[in-house]
Design goal:
The complex is a heterodimer. By secondary structure, chain A is mainly α. Chain A has eight helices and no strands. By secondary structure, chain B is an all-alpha fold. Chain B is rod-shaped, with a radius of gyration of 32 Å. Chain B starts with a helix and ends with a helix. Classes of the chains: A mainly alpha, B mainly alpha. Chains A and B meet through helix 1, helix 2, helix 5 and helix 8 of A and helix 1, helix 3 and helix 4 of B.
């Protein structure tokens, strides 16, 4: 640069305007080039930092979704496990064809009264969305899936809340017929509750229209819940996990 | 000597101007690169949004078909209420009532739009009208969700009441033969249910709610959606003048 400047100064002092303009243009080009390189370098450095942060974020989200996957599978299993109890009670409504004993009925009824509250911890994802850090993720498909994930869980949670209310309905209605003290007495023997004096006649509850309908409703909702879990949670979660794995391996 | 000082002064000013011009050109060049990158990203975003909104349109259309079927069910049930002698087969009655317990909640999963809003990428959209419409789209969806949630709650109340006078086991037995439920021991008499004042009022209330929900779809979703799709198409056409001139 100093050579150009000295040459230009000499040209100016000698009145050589042609040479002066040429060197002025050269200096201008050099300054522009230098600045552009500096800006590009800065952008490259910035991009490198972003890639590093993206990798860290992906690792964190990956761990979170692995945990989510196991939580979802646990809940799914809870719903699957109660289905035989529900179906058995439903089948026996109106006639007790299987000669269910009182003790067995209590056990089945208790199994049926299983509900779940989906508890997925998405702290990292929520923080990434709220802070705008999610934009660090370059893969559009992955980012879009992550962006709609919370809505998917919200939909299942909404349905789960409603299904839970129906289970409570069933449970509260069954209080008119059943004495759960039998179960409490055997589950918490240390309390020495003793047996209830109230006799349980399961033919009364099994011959109740409302009870039958409630069991049918819970049965329908259980099947529907499994379908929702598969469509809205299990499949999308697996997709997200495999997309992150692909990104981390790249 | 005086002449040389003047020349030195000119040289210094020229040097300063040169540096300023050089930096300005470099910054402009950088801005231009960044701007053309933004336009490319805007186009990519608009294409993704167009695809997503076309999918949304399909979901809304499917949901409207369901709502219209529910509407038909309520109307049939409502018309049959209070009639002296109803000759309805039991399975028809159970099917119509069971249909009312459908998933009327509108669930739109718009990852692209959510992502664009959350990451600030939506500001890439230069068209003010389109950008504002995109930001306010979710308000319409939330209004519909709130309405359908209310309808759903009332459907639950209705079903709880129906459980006292009607048995659904025969319906379940037809739908899930693999469970081998068998027939219900509780008789279903359509004349009893259709001459029940609470049943008639509940059906009337749900019929009205469902109708209003269908109407709300038109105001809050279908019209804004048509406008959005039109704006997106216009913007995408605008951003490809070269391709169009090539076609012409």
């Amino acid at each position: 640069m100093s050579i150009l400047r000295k040459t230009r100064l000499t040209s100016l002092l000698n009145g050589d305007m042609k040479k002066l303009s040429l060197f002025m243009m050269a200096e201008l080009a050099l300054i522009t080039l230098g600045m552009t390189i500096a800006l590009q370098f800065d952008q490259w450095k910035d991009l490198e930092n972003k890639r590093e942060s993206e990798q860290i974020l992906l690792q964190q989200i990956y761990q979170e979704f692995l945990e989510a996957d196991s939580t979802i599978n646990f809940s799914y299993k809870t719903y699957t496990n109660r289905i035989p109890a529900i179906e058995k009670i439903y089948r026996n409504c109106g006639h007790n064809a299987d000669d269910i004993t009182t003790k067995e009925f209590m056990k089945l009824s208790w199994d049926m009264y299983t509900y779940n509250k989906l508890d997925i911890n998405n702290g990292i994802l929520i923080e990434a969305i709220n802070s705008g850090k999610l934009s660090l993720i370059q893969n559009d498909l992955l980012r879009n899936k992550l962006s709609s994930w919370l809505e998917l869980t919200e939909h299942v949670e909404y349905f789960e809340e409603n299904a839970k209310d129906q289970i409570f309905d069933y449970y509260n209605y069954s209080f008119q017929f059943t004495t759960y003290r039998v179960l409490d007495a055997s589950a918490s023997a240390a309390l020495r509750l003793g047996h209830s004096k109230m006799e349980l006649d399961i033919s009364v509850i099994l011959n109740d229209r409302i009870f039958e309908n409630q069991v049918g409703w819970i049965s329908y909702n259980s099947e529907r819940m499994l379908g929702l879990y598969e469509e809205f949670l299990i499949t999308p979660c697996k997709e997200i996990v495999s997309l992150i794995e692909a990104e981390l391996n790249n | 000597m005086e002449g040389e000082t003047k020349k030195h002064g000119f040289f210094m000013i020229a040097e300063m101007v040169l540096i300023i011009v050089g930096i300005t050109v470099a910054i402009q060049l950088d801005n231009w690169t960044s701007n053309s990158g933004d336009r490319r990203n805007e186009r990519a975003l608009l294409e993704q949004l167009q695809g997503e909104f076309e999918q949304v349109k399909k979901t809304i259309d499917t949901q409207l078909v369901l709502l219209n079927k529910i509407d038909e069910s309520y109307l049939k049930l409502y018309k049959a209420c209070g009639v002296e002698k109803v000759n309805w087969p039991e399975d028809e009655l159970l099917k119509l009532i069971a249909r009312t317990y459908s998933d009327v909640r509108l669930n739109l999963y718009q990852g692209v739009l959510e992502d664009a809003i959350n990451t600030g990428k939506l500001s890439l959209v230069e068209n003010d009208k389109l950008r504002i419409q995109l930001y306010s789209w979710k308000n319409g969806v939330l209004k519909i969700q709130s309405w359908s949630d209310g309808t759903y709650d009332n459907t639950i109340v209705f079903l709880r009441y129906v459980f006292t006078i009607l048995s659904f086991r025969n319906y379940d037995n037809d739908v899930w033969p693999e469970i081998e439920l068998g027939e219900s021991t509780f008789p279903n008499d359509p004349n009893v249910i259709f001459n029940d004042i609470s049943f008639e009022n509940s059906v009337g209330d749900l019929f009205y709610r469902n109708k209003r929900l269908i109407k709300s779809y038109d105001t809050h979703l279908i019209k804004p959606l048509e406008e959005l799709l039109k704006l997106l198409e216009e913007e995408l056409e605008k951003s490809t003048p070269n391709e169009h001139s090539k076609k012409d």
